[in-house]
Amino acid sequence: MARTATAKIVPLRPAHPEAAVNRALVALHRHLDRCALAANTTKAYRARARAYAAWLAAHADEHPDAFVDQVGAEAAVTAWRRHLIATKASPSTVNQALAAVDLLYEIGAGLRLKVKRARVPRPGEPDALTPKEQGAVERAAGRRGARDAAIVAVLLYTGARAQECARLDVDDLALTARTGTIRLHGKGDEVRHVPVPAAARERLTAWIRHRGTEPGPLWTGQRGPLSDSGVAQVVLTVGSAAGLPGLRPHRLRHTYATRLRQGGADPAQVQALLGHASLDTTARYFRAGTAEQAAVVERIFD
Known about the structure:
The chain is built from 13 helices and 5 strands. By secondary structure, the chain is mainly alpha-helical. A 3-stranded antiparallel β-sheet has the order 1-2-3, with helices on one face. Strands 4-5 form a two-stranded antiparallel sheet.
């Protein structure tokens, strides 16, 4: 009597694809908890990964293999990329979202995806303040008191990011009448020491005299230490008083980098002072704007 061969059928697709997504999210969150990434980056990655999971749940019928194999995963992420672009998300937002989802798959599913990034237009000239605008900002900050004058001085004369400025402690300053350095805690727990020129030393010294030399956060207010948003609000208020509504801390950083370049600093020096991981990021500050080009031509042919 002939035997009938039997074979065990193994389903290619998981019985509960939503469970696979949730497991991947849990693994990603654990990984991010251990990573030395900036808090804002970690927060953004978590949000982008959750947004992808929500989108995938709404399109589960179209992408049942999204967490099965490379082909299914890349098809789903590519469709999500098209969705983000269709919603008018900026190229940088799209690429950050794709980076977060790449990490989601790598950590949570063991898959390394190859999905094309959105094309980021080459940035134009940095939006630096003119010398006249910078003077107006510094005068407006001075009218608001020693603390706000010192905050604006740190942003303008050390190129600190808003988060780096907000994280400063008294112990991060080393000031004398002739020299000064400031210790900035940057992205990914990177620390750099930046020289403090005389104009900023004067304003920081005035604030320390008012605040006192007790250890702790450098910037204090009525409700305690200032946060990133508190620093941004100081700049916004100062900008309005100086006739520059909508002024943000990063524009003061752009101004610092532009002044360095105009003063003869080379790209490597600017990169180190700004704390850029890549020289490509620094390169944008070495593109002279239209007004500066016109001034050079006028000076040469005058």
